[in-house]
């Protein structure tokens, strides 16, 4: 096989070829159109980020990051021009608001995360985040919200929609007890008004949806709308859910602690 063909050959799950092809095209476009704009108050800067999965390399239209792209402190983006990463494709940190992220192809790595928030008891605040039209290929996580036990503040008005997952181990996650032990004496970052809409694809793990919320503070106004995630072998995936309140409309798998609604 010619050397060039060997370089471009990727082992991808069945049905993912088109996504990977577009993924590589966007990466090349990003390399050819580098721009410099490191801060924007309304953080639309991430709309051109592309995380490329061949050996963990990450590329964007502006820079390459260890942590894909990090947003925080009033919507600023912190850039590191190290070409490889194995962490979050994009991390949305405390101080972020009115964040719009779209058209991302991510894999491998840890997906797109809000957080982690509230480490060492910090007062963390994130609101008005919209992540849409993103594809995750072989990543450990898909779309995730994670907060530390003992933190303060809030994460609210967050929407993930039109998400495709291909062989993702943990596609949908809310973890209000990130790296912590349950302790009634400790506080938690409040999580509310979080929606996952039209999330579909396959998981390489057992659980497609994981909602792990604090037993006292809890997660409120959680909406899962049109979720359809099966196992890679075609089997049924599972969901785990504690401490969350909200609704689940046309969800596969069923999320037990939410009010499950179906068309009649």
UniProtKB/TrEMBL annotation:
Subcellular location: Secreted, Cell wall
Pfam families the UniProt entry points to: Glyco_hydro_28
Active-site residues from the entry: 110
Family of this protein: Belongs to the glycosyl hydrolase 28 family.
A GO biological-process term: cell wall organization
Native organism: Vigna unguiculata (Cowpea)
GO MF: polygalacturonase activity
Name by which UniProt lists this protein: Polygalacturonase
Keyword list, A-Z: Cell wall, Cell wall biogenesis/degradation, Glycosidase, Hydrolase, Secreted
Region (Disordered): 57-82
Keyword Secreted attributed: yes
């Amino acid at each position: 096989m010619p050397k060039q063909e060997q370089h471009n050959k990727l082992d991808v799950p069945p049905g993912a070829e088109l996504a990977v092809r577009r993924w590589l095209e966007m990466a090349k476009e990003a390399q050819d159109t580098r721009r410099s704009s490191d801060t924007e108050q309304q953080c639309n800067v991430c709309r051109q980020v592309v995380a490329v999965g061949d050996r963990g390399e990450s590329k964007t239209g502006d820079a390459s990051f260890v942590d894909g792209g990090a947003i925080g402190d009033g919507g600023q983006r912190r850039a590191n021009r190290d070409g490889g990463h194995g962490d979050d494709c994009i991390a949305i940190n405390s101080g972020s608001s009115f964040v719009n992220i779209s058209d991302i192809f991510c894999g491998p790595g840890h997906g797109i995360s809000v957080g982690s928030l509230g480490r060492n008891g910090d007062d963390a605040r994130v609101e008005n985040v919209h992540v849409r039209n993103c594809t995750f290929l072989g990543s450990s996580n898909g779309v995730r919200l994670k907060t530390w036990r003992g933190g303060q503040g809030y994460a609210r008005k967050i929407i993930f929609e039109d998400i495709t997952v291909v062989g993702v181990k943990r596609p949908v996650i809310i973890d209000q007890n990130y790296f912590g032990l349950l302790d009634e004496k400790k506080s938690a970052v409040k999580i509310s008004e979080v929606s996952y809409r039209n999330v579909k694809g396959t998981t390489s793990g057992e659980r497609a949806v994981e909602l792990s919320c604090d037993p006292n503070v809890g997660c409120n106004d959680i909406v899962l709308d049109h979720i359809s995630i099966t196992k890679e072998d075609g089997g049924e995936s599972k969901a785990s859910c504690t401490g969350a309140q909200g609704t689940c409309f046309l969800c596969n798998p069923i999320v037990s602690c939410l009010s499950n609604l179906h068309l009649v």
